[in-house]
Every structure is written in structure tokens, then in C-alpha cells.
Amino acid sequence: MTLVYQSTRDEKNRVTASQAILQGLATDGGLFTPITYPQVDLDFAKLKDASYQEVAKLVLSAFLDDFSEAELDHCITRAYDSKFDDAAIAPLVKLDGQYNLELFHGATIAFKDMALSILPHLMTTAAKKHGLENKIVILTATSGDTGKAAMAGFADVPGTEIIVFYPKDGVSKVQELQMTTQTGDNTHVVAIEGNFDDAQTNVKQMFNNAALRKKLAEHKSQFSSANSMNIGRLVPQIVYYVYAYAQLVKTDQIRAGEAVNFSVPTGNFGNILAAYYAKQIGLPVGKLICASNENNVLTDFFKTHIYDKKRCFKVTSSPSMDILVSSNLERLIFHLLGNNAEKTAELMTNLKKHGQYELTNFDSEMLALFAAEYATEVETAAEIKRVYEISNYIEDPHTAVASAVYQKYRTKTGDDTKTVVVSTASPYKFPVVAVEAVTGQTGLSDFEALAQLHDLTGVSIPAAVDGIETAEVRHKMIVAADQMQAAVEKDLGL
């Protein structure tokens, strides 16, 4: 039986996996979400010796079950290839007291590559499957990493355009240059005067704008998304949790069946939600540790069951987590309420109208799977230094948030379950923060810091940022947040 993906806000809005990937976001504003889970044979006696590609095929064929075996083979082969600088694709590194799952070996040195390397192939395959002749317009807000990874994936892909919005002062210099120097005739990058939440809110509004959808249709185009709001972004992220566990079994760190914790840095809640889905298909997960920076709206939610975005927005050293509206939490809310779309829609309306909602009458056992804490800027910098001093290993600030939160969790609970810290970006993406934390040296430019980081780690400067300071800046548009739709219409010639 084909897996059903339903909108979190309308029980009648049900589609297959390929339809969900093409649409990206449901027109009712909800997110397409599985209402049952597939049976997956997680036999770690076999999986411990499987390649990343083989694990991907096992997981994706279960969740994306209206794609044929040949179609998935095509997508996986093209996604997980020499673009990654490590044959393991997602290597697991043992440090003192934890394991770091490195998800930054792709083309843009951030974890978004893990899913965005395959999404364009899933999307174009789905378009062929449904005989779609419209051009697919990828419309995406980014807090720093999704934008570049999506553009790298979709650049010059026939039948697509991609438009990325990012907060002008809310990303690192390296992140910004990665986006603004992006090549490809179908790529468009627009900086906004505002924060990520402003960008994301306006993107959602465009998806839900019937008049704009009609105008696009008249030009034989339609929107889709590369954010984790798109189930085609989320499902490939399940793979690396299964793969990480298999690697722990392979290296005799755990026995098959033994529970493992994951500490996940998260802003939009997609990465940790993928871990939750891994648990639902049988992965032995102990605790999912939700790690936030000083924008700690998720920490407060898990502790109080009240989601309240009415707070000061902080620009931190971990910008990809500078988010106050965590879109993917809606999927978890939906599940916590017994897949009740009506109740979920009501809470999301409260969030939009009043800036908050309170979760009541929920599945408390499901919620107990999560622990949550946050790390301050001072704690994040201290963790980068601590890990370097004991393991000669430099974490980027997002990974350091997850690492610091794990230390807090362990101290508080005494839980000595083996724990994987999800390492979401290379320190080369945030060189100034990393070098300053380790050496105390201030005032360095990003490019001076890149050289210093090379000296400290002995790791070669990744191709993704090597020479980026001299690359041609191709995208220079800056608009007010309320002018985003006008920018889209201009870029698409509507």
C-alpha cells in the first residue's frame, strides 16, 4: 500500500510522496507529513557493512514508495558521488566522551548537502512521473546554509528556477559569499532587510497566495520548496541517523539493539525531526536532545509546553539557528495530537494571531523522547575551546551548541548512554568564530581566519570556500521584507 502524506492542517489534503515533493508546501499552509510509518528491515548485522548509498536506498524506498527502484537508483547515484570529499559521505568521528557525525563533506560544507544533493533529482523525476510540463520555481528562505546548498543542487537543472532569500545581516561573510557568487542562469539570490523569520513568513505567504499561483500558472510555472518544509528534504535526512548507528555497530562501540542518544543543533526543527522518524521505523534511540542557541524558543517549549515567539530575536555566532518560528515543529505537534489536523491548524492560527500557543491533551510518552536545553554565546565559545584542547578537533559554532548542550544534559541527568553529536557544518564556514574561540585572537577577517584555521587543524581549506574572496559577486539585490513578492515577480518576469 502506498504511503499517505497528509497536510498537518487538513485531513482531506492527502497525496503520495512524489506529489508532496512537487508541491513542497500544502496550499492550506500545512506541511505534508506521513500518517503511518513504513516497515523497514533495520538488520544491523548487514547494515554495518553497507555503504551510505545502500542505506539511503533502504530508507528512501520505504518512505518514497511511489518511486520505482530504477528511479531511486538514478537519484541516489547522482546525489552521493564525488561531490562529497569523503567516501563514507557522513563519517563518524570518535572524540573524548562523544561521537561527532560529520555531515559537512558535501559541496557547500554544511549538512543541508545531505538532502539537497538528492532533492533536485527527486523533484525532476517526480515531474516526469506526473507528466508535469510547468517550470518548477524553487522558493526558499535561508538562515545561511539551505540557500547555497539548494542553489548548488538546482543550478542549471532544466525546467527549474530557484530564488533564495536570506537576512542581510544574519549570516556569516563566508555564507553570504557562497550565495552571492553562485553561478547558474536559473539562480537568483535576494538579501532582505529583516531576519530569517521575516523571510520564511513571506515565503509561506507566497505559497498560500492564490492570485500569485494563478499568475505563475499562466506563465506555465509553479512553486515548490527546498526548505525542510518539503518532505523530499526531510526524508533523506533520516538516512544518516541509521548510517551513524550502523557505524557504531561496525566499530564495536555498541551492540545492535543498544540505545543511542543524539544531540542535534536545531532552529527549524527539521534535522531532529528526521531523527524522530528514524526512531519510528525502529532505530534504537534513547533521547533526542534538542539543542538551541540563545534564541531558545524550542527549549522553553519542551519545558513548558507553551510555544511563544514573542521574545527578542538575537543574532548569534550560530546564525543557521537564529529562528523563532520553527516550521517543522508543526509536524511533531501534529503527531503529538494524534495526527489531528483540526487541532494543529487551530494552534498554528493562534501562533500567527497571538504569537503563541499552548499544547494540551498530547501524547506525553512521545514528548518524553525529547530533552531540550540551550547554550549561550559564552558557553558555545568555551565548548569549541574545550573540545579542541582535549581532542585536537575544532567544531563549528552550531556543532558546539549541540556539544555544549550534551555536556549540560549529561551533568544534569547522569545519563551515560553513548551519544552522537550531529555536526552540521565545517568550522571553515565560520572561521572567525572558531579561531577566536580557540586562540582568543580578535579582529581577524574571514579570510585571515581561514588561513589560521588551516594552521590549527592541518585540514586543507575545502574547495567550497577556497578562493571565495576573489569570486565574482553575481547577486546584489537587497529588498525590504515586504517587497519579497515584487522581487519574485521581477525575477520571473511575471
What does this structure look like?
With 494 residues, the protein is an alpha/beta fold. The chain has a domain at 92-109 and 234-469: Rossmann fold, CATH 3.40.50.1100. Helix content is 44%, strand content 16%. The protein has helices spanning 17-23, 44-47, 52-63, 69-79, 112-116, 119-129, 146-154, 173-180, 196-207, 210-218, 231-250, 270-280, 297-304, 329-336, 341-354, 364-367, 377-391, 397-413, 431-439, 446-457, 484-492, and strands spanning 5-7, 10-15, 32-34, 92-95, 98-102, 135-141, 160-167, 187-193, 221-224, 260-265, 285-292, 306-308, 356-358, 370-374, 419-423, 477-480. Strands 4-5-15-10-11-14 form a six-stranded mixed beta sheet, sandwiched between helices. A five-stranded parallel beta sheet has the order 9-6-7-8-16, sandwiched between helices. Strands 2-1-3 form a three-stranded antiparallel beta sheet. Helix 11 (231-250) crosses helix 12. The longest helix is centred in the middle third of the chain and has 20 residues, at 231-250. The protein is globular and about 60 Å long. 54% of the residues are buried.
